[in-house]
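Researcher: Please generate the 3D structure of the following complex. Treat every line as part of one assembly.
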Amino acid sequence: MTIPPSGLVVAYSHTGDPACAVAELVAAIAGRALAGGMLFCSHRYSRDALAEELARQFPDFPMIGCTSAGELSPLGYDEDSIVFIGLPADSFAMSILHFDDLDGFEVEQGRIAVRELAATAAAQARRLGDQLHHAAIFLVDGLSHREELITMTVQEALGDTVMVGGSSGDGMVFRETGVLVKGRFVQDAAALAILSSIRPLHAFRTNHYRPREERMVVTASDAQARVVYEINARPAAQEYARIAGLRGGQIDTAFFAANPPMVRAGGEYHVRAVQSANADGSLTFYCAIDNGIVLRVGERIDRIAHMEELFADVEAHVGAIDHVIGFDCVLNRIDAASGQLTGEVSQLYARRHVVGFNTYGEQFRAAHNNQTLSGLAIGA
Amino acid sequence: MAEADRPITLDPQALAEQVRQLEAINAALIDRVERSSDMHGGGFSMFETAIALEAMVRERTAALENTLARLNVANAELALAHNDADAARSRLRDAIETLPDGFAIYDAQDRLVLCNQAYLDFWPVMRERDLSNITFTEVAELAAHSGHALASLVSPDRWLADRLAHHAGADRVHIHALADGRWVQINELKTSEGGRVGIYTDVTEVKAEDARERARELAERNLVLQATLDTLSEGVCHYGKDRRLRVRNEGMTRLLGLDARTSKRLETHDGLVAHCRDRLGIDRMDALAWRDDGARIEMQCLLGGRHFIIRSTPLLPGGMAISFNDITDRVNDREALREAAEMLERRVAERTTELEAEIAERRVVEAELMSAKTAAEHANRDKTRFLAAASHDLLQPLNAARLFVAALGERRLAAPSRALVRQTGVALDSVEDLLEALFEISRLDAGAITPDLTSIELEPMLGALRIEFAAVARGHGLLLDIPETNLWVGSDVRLLRRILQNFLSNALRYTATGGVGIKVVAEGEYARITVHDTGPGIALEHQDTIFEEFRRLEATQRIPGKGLGLAIVRRATAMLGHPLEVRSRPGEGSAFSVLVPIAQPREPRADDPARPLASGSTGSRRLLVIDNDPAILSGMAALLRNWGHHVTLATSARDDGVEAALAQGIDLIIADYHLDDGARGDGAVAEIRAQTGTAIPAMIITADRSEEVKAALAAAKLPVLNKPVKPAQLRALLRNMLGSGA
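Model: Done. Output below.
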């Protein structure tokens, strides 16, 4: 008698104590055979303790994870929690590669490492059969400034295997995030997991904004630091606020989230999210910026309707959805809150089995994006 | 560019600021553009590149997926098609295996596609070979050299060539004999793709059945043939090339005197010859000689004492047919015929001699008859001429005498003279009548008269008779009753008139008291014209004799008459074919009838008897009389002048005085037919008419009563009076022609 392959094993805990939390996770897993897992935890957790506990409870268990700026649990938007996603062994295979010292990342070495990983993953996945779907999950330190380079390098080396992922967060503190590498949460690191499954896999990316008419040009910036000093030869924050139509009121995160700058590339508009407005009137961005880029200020679209469309499209690709591993930008969450949509969005996520975390940035294929909802849908 | 809400201002400071801004923007943009394609142009460039790559990958993925999808569909369909094809193939295979016949399909490249067991059974050698990709040529070669087909045992290459040719043509059925005694019928057809499909049918049984059927037919035919041969009275036999008997009929045995046992001798040709020579003593051996070629030879010979005709014919491709025809009877018959012929010839010769003698005699007789006939004809001709001449010569002077007497009679004379004249006249009349009657009889006898049968209107004739005999009847104190009739009859005018005249004159003569009459009654197709009288009647025994010449009854002897009238009537009625009847009893009067066929009325002719017109005298006219006889002339002149006419006399049309008379005007010409110098009366009339340019009325007076003259004058439409002329007639005609009251 064949048992139909089981779906993803999702476990979560709100318990602050790492040991208890992990124990809860284990209990929820209930001994099911897993090929590997993903873990996203609130930045408040004591990282070392958590890491230790995880190493103990999941010895030799292929796992990737990171800290977040919020979690997506089976309840929807969640916080101060740990979310664990387990991939059943009878339908998944998982192979992991870690990078650290992202500042010293060398493209060629990275490429080779990724290719080796791909070969290993293929070999390991052979037990599942020959009609397999492949995808890659990429987690990277959200505070590193090397996402673009590494993302591009990794995706290029992966070839046809689509990569999707998120940048680790630290709850809008912007001090230190951690990526789980070899049993420790580490800064300035990245983790890449290649998934092979007999189930259909589909990676996607979307954002909930559309650009307004007015254009602004970055006329002075520090590309390395991702700081824009001048827009339209005027102080950046001021000019941005003016163009965005801020009349009185604070230039704060909510404002950034609701009026994200967008740049046109590849015929589409991509958000270049603002991390912070600095005292000197400059703006720090979450992602790559440069002199001379043309920005437009974005405005909200109907998020719920848009997401329903998105999920309908996803279903068209994978059929019935088992789970969606979601990488939802923290700014989306903030903007949902300021738009009184948190509840609805949560319900939608819960209904659609979206689990993951709120990020400081998202990866989709070779690009590093902001303020998107990216994810990997897994079919039933 | 960043249009924003910059008001257009003329403030130089603001402008300077604007310019500065724009310059900075411009510089940034230009710099960006330049660096945009740099390989290591920084994080944003990488971002852009990544996005671009993404787009390309997306497209490629979409295309790939599309293609994959289509490929999957195609694969699915292909799989389905393969399944179908496989299923079809199996079904076909199963189907052809159920066929009793061999079945094989070769494709357009002549490779074997499919065949069934039955096919392989025909060519068992094929079982040893791998049949995948085998071509027909290879199969045929295998078959040819395996000796499966009978013909291939003899000449495999030829069989192979034939087989390949048949296969290529694929349009006919072929039958091959197989070495194992079977027969296979190969029917190959071209397929739509240019290959060949062949059906191989075992026709052994069919062939056997055919053969049996043929044998039966042959046997039947042989029986029929034999029966036919046996019906021949001739004996026929046929020896084959080996000189052994193939066919003979019953006639052979019969004619050659053989029976069931001895007929064995005929088995060979030599036997036949021996039998004919030794047993039958044939007199011509070469009649039976064996020949291998040549034409048919017929010979008559004696066999066993009988005559035969032996016909021998060499046959192709060898053998001889010989027939024996017993002609003994024929020969005998021929002999008999010949004898009969000879005898007949002899008799014919005899008879011919006899006949020749007879003919000679007859010829003599004929010659005599001929001369007799000639003599008779001459005599007749003479007689006629004589009669004509006689009548003319006799009648001319008589005519003149009559005229003179008539003229005399019209003068004032003393009583005795008058009496004399009267008597003379009477005597002349008698003579005239007698002569006329005689001439008439003679002419009738001589056949000088041919009746001219026409349709005659009776009434004019009767009218004339009424007038003619009125006076006579009055003189006798008798009633003359001739009622009118409208009947037409077919007869000769003159002869009929003569008949009736004779009847009437007889009746008037012999009736003392009472009356005479003519009755015309139609009886069927005939008109019975009866002349009846109240005379003494005629006794039965005399009713035939009265018709003889000069016969007069005693009772009437006293009464003047000649007794010729009825003789003439007899002849006339005989000539005309009109039946004659007498009904009379002594003391009861007589009735003489003539039966004349009724005829259709016709148009009147010029010589019809003129209707009698109301009597009256002719006024004085100027008349021209032409006659070559002066006596006649003076006689006519006297007569006519007596009647009050002016008369000019001439002997021909050219006489002096004619012209003068013509100038004065002539009302009528009276001319004699026979004038001097061959001239004729009608010619004279014509001349005068031409001269004057007017059709002066004319009449011809002639003694010539011949048919030619009558015809000529009728053609010329000239009225004729015959000499001797009766004055009354002349007067009546004059009146008629010159008009009544004229």
